[in-house]
Sequence to fold (450 residues):
Amino acid sequence: MKTTRIYISLLAQFVSLFTLSAAIAADLVIENVTLIDGTGRPPITGATVEIDGDRISRITRGPAQPASDARRIDGTGKFLIPGMIDVHLHLRGGARVTPEGLRDPDTDVEAGRAALHGYLYSGVTSIYDAGNNPDHIFNLRAMERVGTLIAPRIFATGGIVTYPGSHGSFEGSTLVDDWPEAIPLLEDHIARGPDMMKLTLEERGWGARPMIPMLPLDLMQHIIEYANDHGIRTTVHTSSELRARQAIFAGIDTLSHPIIQGPITDDFARLMSVKKIPMATTLTIGENYSRLVEHPEYLDQPLYRAVLEKAYIDEQKTRIRDEYAGRDWTWWMKIMTPIAQENLRKIHAEGGILAIGTDQTIGPAVHRELELIVAAGIPALDAIRIATLNGAVFLGRERDLGSIEEGKLADMVLLDGDPTTDINHAKQINLVIKGGIIIDRDRLDLPVNR
Ligand SMILES: [Zn+2]
Fold:
């Protein structure tokens, strides 16, 4: 017993010496930068941010005296924001289209990696995949966590939990129709380790979509309680105020979309503020249909050209554009996007928590989402909080992620332009840092580097 204890204490000393020397070697200091810390506080000029290992160790105003072997970055004239977080996307590579036009589950690591590199290049250091082929997304997540894949931090839901025939019931989904019969299915579901559980509460019958069956509310309540009892947060697809309200009172932790079916009541804005239920903004998915038809040249912006394959852009501008042009859904969403924007603005103004989500598959979409948030009338400084700290709150990870504060993981983006004067400056990315390590953007597997 005694020998074991001595052994453990020696081991502990060895480990701490080792971590100490590793930390000094990895030390990084960003000096004289304008710090926009993600909390919504006003920018601090002339700040010094010190990174020890993978964490932010010290933030000071004015010059600091870091270890002499620390790597120093001159932040003069530059702006430091937290790494951005997209809390609603579906990563590529999880499905392929068969010759019959059906979608088959797939686990295309290359496609996933290319998309992930595009997110990092765009300044996104954490993502939440809100529904995918579980084999695909959990494989990529495992690779990122052991360090064999250069990628943003991956949080994932795997398959969606819903009612047979309802929104989101496809290959890989967990379909439940009764309680307690659902328990063994949910046991299998959480055995895969979802970071959040995603449900859907949607009967459609609006826009250009016919009605479908919907998850019963009492069953939903059981599922949420089960997930929470197992330490798992929940999120839900809803599109109307009525269903969002019902989901909140069934105990849901977050909402995956804004209200898109119509204008919200003032009561709902107040409810969202009182309950502090984070809501993903997902304006880009609906707005992108008409944008592609009417302004396909947006794909020629440098950021899109840098991360998207030419063949993908060409297909978007031709086949996909024609497809969108002929859909009623495209024009419905064009009309409803300003209403969703105003709904988000009202919730924000009331004190509710919005978090950037795109419901897309590409990194640059995060920047479009920021543009749409600011165009809704939300101040740019608040939009940065919505893209960073609020995303961490959505995921329940705000102790470690989302802001540039002492003790947090060092995920940050150095910008050449001030994003508070023009949110488009968030695209002027100079450096991306994840966990204290500078991402070599010139070596990411992207068209810009070929
Ligand atoms: Zn989605």
